[in-house]
Write a structure and sequence with these properties.
Layout: H1 3-16, E1 21-24, H2 32-38, H3 40-48, E2 83-84, E3 90-96, E4 103-111, E5 116-127, E6 141-145, E7 160-168, E8 173-182
Parallel strand pairs: 2-8
Antiparallel strand pairs: 1-3, 3-6, 4-5, 4-7, 7-8
Helix pairs in contact: 2-3
The structure holds 2-acetamido-2-deoxy-beta-D-glucopyranose (NAG) (3 copies).
One 2-acetamido-2-deoxy-beta-D-glucopyranose (NAG) is lined by residues 122, 124, 136, 138.
Length: 183
């Protein structure tokens, strides 16, 4: 292939096709607060393709910006999207996977202050396997049971998110979405 064709098709792939994201419950979106923290380019990258990997999002290098936490999306831009759950509640989730990349996936409650997992509710050892003729229905439609032992740790909006995390092993690409919730 001619080099310019390779570059053109790479660009085409990067800008036109998405890979995957959470469609329900509503997940954090980029906005003005994220632009302030991470830079306008990071916001533009997500606006151009909300299903792209973290590796395609350029941070402005500010220590306040962590693309690895919720793709850099900030609570301040998402106050209207906070879900309310009860301990033990079963929450139905849906995802789209336009371009699957086989690898592990999990859904966890993450402490946003420390960026640490408090509890992992669901684990797929092998998710989004592009070698399968059809993806298992549970890749795009699944349920998680909210933890019962978090006490008041998630009682204030913004303190905790439900994180969908997927890593395409061969692709070396990370996908992430965060659902803000109180419990
Ligand atoms: C998922 O990607 C679509 C297409 O880019 C975008 O419209 C939507 O806002 C994204 N959703 C999330 C939660 O990122
Ligand atoms: C879940 O995903 C996280 C990334 O946020 C990873 O560090 C962790 O090892 C995964 N846990 C399991 C049990 O798969
Ligand atoms: C998803 O479905 C597949 C195929 O039925 C099954 O092997 C796998 O264990 C399921 N994974 C989860 C996390 O429920």
């Amino acid at each position: 292939m001619h080099i310019s064709t390779i570059i053109a098709s790479t660009l085409f792939t990067a800008t036109v096709f998405g890979h995957g994201n959470i469609t329900s419950p509503p997940a954090r979106q980029p906005g003005p607060a994220m632009a302030k923290v991470c830079g306008a380019a990071a916001v533009s990258a997500i606006m151009a393709d909300g299903t792209g990997p973290l590796e395609g999002i350029q941070s402005n290098g500010s220590p306040q910006c962590n693309i690895g936490l919720c793709k850099g999306a900030q609570f301040a831009d998402n106050k209207a999207l906070v879900q309310k759950y009860a301990p033990g509640q079963v929450v139905q989730m849906t995802a789209v996977l336009p371009i699957p990349h086989e690898g592990p996936c999990n859904i966890s409650v993450v402490n946003t202050k420390t960026n640490t997992i408090m509890e992992t509710m669901l684990v797929f050892d092998s998710y989004a396997d592009e070698n399968l003729a059809v993806l298992p229905p549970n890749n795009t439609n699944f349920a998680v049971t909210m933890p019962t032992d978090l006490g008041t740790a998630c009682s204030v909006a913004g303190a905790c998110v439900m994180q969908w995390f997927w890593f395409g092993t061969a692709a070396q690409q990370t996908y992430e979405n965060c659902v803000d919730f109180v419990m």
